[in-house]
Amino acid sequence: MTAEASLGRLEDDDYPAYTMGRAAAILGTTPGFLRALGEARLITPLRSEGGHRRYSRYQLRIAARARELVDQGTPIEAACRIIILEDQLEEARRINEELRRSTTETRDGTDA
């Protein structure tokens, strides 16, 4: 793999670039917290060839949100559910906006 290809992968939010230890250090938490998020099925880390958990930047953002809620006193199971609902709400808003735009374009005759 070329250096350019490697750099491109590291810029990919979904590329599993972080080991469990590094991810925990970045988040200021423990590996156990990350395992708990996996058990709650909030994030599913990829596994290296050796079977070690690897996390992406996207997964670290989700874990950071979970930590924020837990630090505020929310039980981890509830924090995971809140994050899932927030994600579903954001997706519904995105779909509604697309439909609204499509309807407006059709009504205005710009999509004909």
From TrEMBL:
Any one Gene Ontology MF annotation carried by this entry is: DNA binding
Q: Which PROSITE patterns match?
A: HTH_MERR_2
Annotated CDD domains: HTH_MerR-like (cd00592)
User: One of this protein's GO BP terms?
Assistant: regulation of DNA-templated transcription
Q: Where do the HTH merR-type domain residues begin and end?
A: 17-85
Q: Name one Pfam family in it.
A: MerR_1
Say which domain of life the source belongs to: Bacteria
Protein name per Swiss-Prot or TrEMBL: MerR family transcriptional regulator
